[in-house]
Fold this sequence. Notes:
The complex is a heterodimer of chains A (291) and B (697).
Chain A: E1 7-11, E2 18-20, H1 36-41, H2 44-64, H3 67-80, E3 82-87, H4 89-97, E4 102-105, H5 106-111, H6 121-134, E5 141-147, E6 159-163, H7 165-168, E7 172-175, H8 179-185, E8 199-201, H9 205-213, H10 223-230, E9 245-249, E10 252-253, E11 257-262, H11 270-290
Antiparallel strand pairs in A: 1-2, 3-5, 3-6, 4-10, 5-9, 6-11, 7-8, 7-9
Chain B: E1 2-6, E2 11-15, E3 22-26, E4 31-32, H1 35-38, E5 42-44, E6 48-52, H2 56-81, H3 85-101, H4 105-112, H5 120-132, H6 136-147, H7 149-160, H8 174-184, H9 187-191, H10 196-204, H11 213-230, H12 262-281, H13 285-300, H14 305-322, H15 326-339, H16 344-356, H17 360-371, H18 376-389, H19 393-400, H20 410-422, H21 426-441, H22 450-464, H23 468-480, H24 486-502, H25 506-519, H26 524-536, H27 540-545, H28 559-571, H29 575-584, H30 593-610, H31 613-621, H32 629-646, H33 649-660, H34 667-677, H35 681-694
Antiparallel strand pairs in B: 1-2, 1-6, 2-3, 3-4
Helix pairs in contact in B: 2-3, 2-4, 4-6, 5-6, 10-11, 12-13, 12-14, 13-14, 14-15, 14-16, 15-16, 16-17, 16-18, 17-18, 18-19, 19-20, 20-21, 20-22, 21-22, 22-23, 22-24, 23-24, 24-25, 25-26, 26-28, 28-29, 28-30, 28-35, 29-30, 30-31, 30-32, 30-35, 31-32, 32-33, 32-34, 32-35, 34-35
Amino acid sequence: MVPPVAKSEEKCRRCGASLSDSLRHCPTCQADAGAPNVRACRTDENLKALAKRFGDAQARASVKGCLEEFESLSRLIETQSGVVVSMPARMARSAMDDPNWLYTNYERLVGGRVRMPAGPGNDRHRFGVGGALFGSYASDIMYGVLSLTKMGLPTYGDLHCRLRSVTIDQRTSFLETNSYTFVSDYSIAAGEKLPVGYTACWRKRHLLVLAKVASLLSTGQSETDWQAILIRSDGKDRNNDDFVEAHIFEGFDKNAIESMIKHSDKKLSRADETDRDLAISAFKSFIGETK
Amino acid sequence: MTGISSRSAGVILVPKPETSDYAVFDVVESVEKDPVEAQYLYSAAQDWEEIEGNDATALIERATREYWIARTVSHLRMAIRGLEESLEVRVFESTEEILGSRLTSEDVLNRLLVAPLADTSASVALARSALTHGFSVVASVLDELVELQSLLRRLTDHWLGLPDELFIDMPESKEEIWRTLVENHRLSDLLKSDNGDDFENKWNLLAFSFTRPQSRTGVSILGKELSLRLFPSDESERTPTGVQTDEAEPWHGHVERRGGSDHDTFVRVQKQIFAIAKGVSEGRDNRAEKFLRQLIKEQTSVSGGENYAVMSLCYIAQLCADMFRTDFEIMCLDLALQLKPFDARSLIQSGDHFKRVGKYEEALEVLEQARHSEGSDVATSSMADVYSEQGKHEEAIRIYKTIPDWNNKAAVLNAIADNLRKVGNMAESEAIYKSLIDRCRRGLLGYADSEFRALAGLAEIAKRQGRFDDALCFYEDILRREHENDRARLFYRLGLCNVFKLMEQYHAAYRIVGDVIVDYPFAMVARFIRGSILGLIGEEWNGLKDLPEGKGSRSGQEWLRRYYRGLLLFKLKRYEDAKKDLVEEISNTIATGEGKAILRLGAALWFLREGKVFEADSFLSAIPDLYDCHLQYLSLVLRLHSATQKKDREAVASLKRLIANLEVVDTKLDLAVNAIAEGDFSLAITYVTDALLKIAA
Lengths: 291, 697
């Protein structure tokens, strides 16, 4: 018996069968239709809404007299931005030590075997965030942030790993903000349609960023200022973080990591510090070996 | 209860009671994680595993242990692959700390044995580095890892060569079985199996890790098959499986110099020496020798480094002497003499070594050589010590007096006073000690260090005369003051401890000797004394831990171990075992004078309990004149015991008269006399045994 799958209006380019919104492969011929989160961003409706938000942002920048900054940032995002995943030191060390290491999320690993951890009521709501955004493939999504540099969010780990674009660009989408904030702000329930214009695929990520941050632009800003606008965090409380969230379909291994750096301000225990430095050291050797 | 644990993430999912929910517990921070935060928990895909435990606490404990093992193994693996020095040292530090608190070396070693190393040279280098930096536990683990590689390769070759048919009936895969072996069993022990039976017995313990009967049967079949392959012939022809040692390396030559200040170097060398001494104390001679070789290579790699190497060797030899490892001691001294054949210190220490092992002629020969090098006075004095050791005190005094200007040399005068004391010439001895103290207090040149030793001499006289309070005052006076000679302080502390023992203040004695052991972990005499104190307070079993059966070579003062051990076994009514130490080994034991007399008292006790009075008498009659009132009293009580058993009324009366003229220094002995008079020999023996345990030469 074939498991029920959500039907899509999209057709398989190979066999013409209807694709599922939540499956990467055509259920009929198994041709790769592309990551479902990316396909969800590429709908006409979303692209149009995104383009409109971008156009409005551009107009506002023009009125403020900072069109030049707007365009510079847009170019930078298009050409230099990438995804950074932050991870705890112990995890990074383990990743660098184990040749077979594959980065994957907890939900995917244990979801099939045990129920999700239960907590207070609002937590139950938050557990629904992944489902609200991605449906049945939520457990296949790895989270990261869009960054202009090698730095990511310190609240999510001790080490920042920027991923090689070529390894993720076909399977990564972006959400304008933290998914919990997004689902909460728009009161999205599971199964409901998402507001359009707030997600983007890799090639349109600059539109999403500019639509979000245009109001924060001012004349004379540089790349450093924009990184601070793109990722805002007090390093302590995740609730105070603001960033563009990257959603990577399925995991990655250490070959996908382009750079690994420590967060300079973060105070770690001696054990974590050793783990962190070991991870960086091993990463450097690894890069040296593969070059 | 089943939990799901990730070693890389350091978390465990613990089922919540009466629900189907799980709590996420961080085993590193020892906290339950916020369920929302847990959503961001990423880990290696392959390391989530189900683990079993009786309750949540057991699950968390197991997951915590597994995390630390995995982390430590990961650290060492990364270090083997190569790290920059500062990070390598941090890994050593962290690993050493974990191995000293959370895990044992075996835990980590067994996991590292999961597969043979592709190249052992990196591990060898890492072990050396660990040792050079003073991390002896890490060095030991790495060293053993390397040592076991050939055996591991042999086992894995046979394992991989096992036919698939052997695994057909087993629900677990070949890989799962191997993993269970590595994680749940002491693979290192299995590798060191002596023969096929030994291997099979150890292997079969693996069956307990499987619940299904077919798995257990399968494991047993695998064990038999492997045993046959590893030990194809019978035991007499079996392939040797002893640990293979590396090819002999030269003792000196070029090695890479370590950076750091002189102080760093000093601290590092100290740690290396400690690791060597630890290896010797644990009987891991191969390792100790290897570490020693590394140290000497490092020290001799620089111009003039031979002097430092000789100093290190002499110091290690001294530590070995303290542990009665005279075999390793002489090896160090021989090496020192190879590096610098006429080094006075090495020659004098060699002479001292020969003296302690009873090779008096050789001692005198070596010291004669030393006399012709720099330290002729010390060599002469050491020659006199050799005579003193043989009980030839008059000859010793004569030789001391050949040292030029001897009557103005504090050390020589002290030695003469000691010898006079030993022949019972207490008055003359006391006069010399007092004169030395006086000269020192008047600030005369050359007497500054003599006061403590002279005071200790007076304390020993007081002790022998039964004036324990005076002895206590002398020792306390010595120890109240600052000392430059730390090693001498060790003996004064033990002297004080012995006085407390005689005064039956066992807790004070125990506290002192315990502190001494902390400060001088390799001073075996201190352990022997502690063992005797434990015996006196009714903890004979614990006492025996400090008095293990002797394995090493024999030397002076080692007789104390046999003597105390024999008495503890005697107290435990293990008379046949006690006989070995108290009676049979006497002829092989190196002891002279008072030491020999004490041993004879112990042997007499053993025979008296057996009712063999003639044998007891033969030991008692060989005891020479005694100058220690406690020993005198003891000797008379044992003679009285014998005479009473023999019903020799005349002797009994004579002995009673002699005893009555003595001051009672030990009330237990007085009680023993009463018990003998009442014919309760068993009770008398109980009192005498404790009195013998209190003795400390």
